[in-house]
């Protein structure tokens, strides 16, 4: 069993609108104590609005600052600009192609020159029109997978850059379930023979519980209660067509037998839309880690109470109320590597970068920001005292 080496990384999203030059955020990263940093394109390096000569100078400055500070930019990540678009799932291929050729591929070439390791992104979302039609959904998914495969192959040819797609919260932002994520990774590897990996975010499991497939009993109860209260359904039914059947049943069903028949019809309609429903395991952080840590070179770190994904730091207060702990996370990663690798999946990653994606408020004082990042590092150094130590050694030292 070959376990991965573990690294602690700081995402420079903490510096957005405050410390925008590489010389600034890299020096602060060094002073906090991190040796590695992930560059968010939100911090004044997004190709959508940055001219090429500026981007050239930015990368030159990063190279110089790496030598001066000893901090290494190890990964790049998309930011809020790209998060707000349907991106690679756009209905018009001209838009998809522009994003590929003027954003993703150029960034891959540049980070290869920087000798960084990988790029990760949340760069697509499924429009509602497509979600409502299983045939369109299948076709659009095939388009996305084709583009991801093209990108993975391109990245491999340009510096063997690792490409990671970020796991998200809701049906319109795949991959958002464990089974759906597995299908994405297998589909790309099967056709292109180059790995597509997944970025796990330990806070991105809070939305799936809103989209659990409900039981026939609950559907029946919702109809019975609605008939009494004239209310809308509180359960998640998925597609518009399913809600239409529910409302029709609510208006027309008068007897127990009619309600039971309507429930069967609603349940049959739900079978057509499996991609709109989650399972209980999809809302469990550690189930995700156990399944995909070995396919996740970047794991975005935040503290969460299991209800909110606020990208909080690991401070004494958030640690007290949070569910992400060092021991539990490392044990879940271990389980991922102990499982027999699934047939058709990409090779397990050799390095995992636990990357702290900590958001800051506009009204936070800069000293408070730095303090909470220092507290985060102090907590996690109890479990990863040095970067690059193998997981088995880390776990052995904790016993």
CATH superfamily membership of the largest domain, which one? Divalent-metal-dependent TIM barrel enzymes
| Count of discrete structural domains | 2
Question: How many distinct helices?
Answer: 15
Shape assignment? globular
Beta-strand portion reads: 5-15%
* Order of neighbouring strands in the sheet with most strands: 1-2-3-4-5-6-7-8
- Given the helix and strand composition, which structural class is it? alpha/beta
Unreliable sequence segments: none
| SSE pattern, N- to C-terminal | EHEHEHHEHHEHEHHHHEHHEHEH
Strand element count: 9
CATH architecture of the largest domain: Alpha-Beta Barrel
Biggest sheet details: 8 strands, parallel, barrel
Task: Please state the average pLDDT score.
Answer: 95
What is the CATH class of the largest domain?
Answer: Alpha Beta
How much helical structure, as a percent, in the residues?
A: 40-55%
Walk me through the structure:
The chain is of the alpha/beta class and 399 residues long. The protein starts with a strand and ends with a helix. It has an 8-stranded parallel beta barrel with strand order 1-2-3-4-5-6-7-8, surrounded by 5 helices. It is globular. It contains 15 helices and 9 strands. The chain is 47% helix and 11% strand. It has helices at 22-32, 52-69, 80-83, 93-113, 128-131, 134-157, 178-192, 216-229, 240-252, 256-270, 285-292, 316-321, 326-338, 366-380, 391-398, and strands spanning 5-11, 36-40, 72-77, 118-121, 162-166, 197-201, 298-301, 351-356, 389-390. The protein folds into 2 domains: 5-208 and 280-398, TIM Barrel, CATH 3.20.20.150; 216-275, no CATH class.
């Amino acid at each position: 069993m070959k376990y991965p080496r573990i690294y602690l990384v700081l995402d420079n999203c903490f510096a957005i609108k405050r410390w925008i030059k590489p010389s600034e955020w890299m020096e602060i990263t060094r002073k906090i104590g991190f040796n590695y940093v992930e560059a968010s394109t939100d911090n004044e390096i997004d190709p959508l609005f940055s001219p090429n000569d500026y981007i050239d100078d930015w990368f030159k400055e990063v190279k110089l600052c790496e030598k001066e500070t000893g901090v290494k930019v190890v990964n790049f990540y998309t930011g809020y600009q790209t998060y707000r678009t349907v991106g690679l799932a756009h209905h018009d291929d001209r838009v998809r192609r522009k994003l590929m050729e003027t954003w993703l591929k150029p960034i891959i070439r540049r980070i290869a020159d920087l000798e960084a390791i990988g790029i990760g992104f949340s760069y697509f979302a499924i429009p509602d029109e497509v979600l409502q039609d299983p045939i369109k959904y299948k076709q659009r998914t095939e388009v996305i997978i084709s583009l991801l495969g093209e990108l993975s192959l391109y990245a491999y040819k340009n510096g063997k850059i690792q490409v990671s797609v970020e796991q998200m919260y809701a049906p319109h932002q795949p991959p958002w379930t464990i089974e759906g994520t597995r299908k994405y990774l297998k589909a790309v590897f099967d056709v292109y023979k180059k790995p597509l990996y997944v970025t796990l975010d330990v806070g991105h499991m809070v939305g799936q519980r809103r989209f659990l497939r409900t039981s026939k009993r609950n559907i029946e109860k919702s109809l019975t209660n609605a008939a009494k209260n004239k209310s809308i359904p509180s359960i998640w039914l998925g597609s518009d067509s399913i809600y239409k059947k529910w409302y029709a049943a609510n208006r027309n069903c008068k007897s127990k037998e009619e309600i039971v028949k309507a429930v069967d019809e609603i349940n049959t309609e739900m079978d057509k839309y499996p991609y709109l429903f989650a399972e209980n395991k999809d809302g469990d952080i550690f189930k995700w880690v156990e399944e995909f840590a070995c396919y996740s070179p970047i794991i975005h770190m935040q503290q969460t109470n299991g209800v909110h994904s606020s990208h909080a730091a690991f401070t004494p207060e958030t640690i007290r109320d949070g569910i992400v702990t060092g021991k539990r996370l490392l044990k879940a990663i271990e389980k991922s590597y102990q499982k027999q690798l699934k047939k058709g999946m990409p090779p397990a990653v050799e390095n995992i970068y636990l990357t702290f994606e900590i958001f800051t408020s506009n009204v936070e004082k800069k000293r408070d920001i730095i303090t909470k990042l220092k507290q985060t590092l102090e907590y996690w150094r109890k479990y990863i005292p040095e970067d690059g130590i193998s997981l088995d050694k880390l776990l052995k030292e904790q016993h």
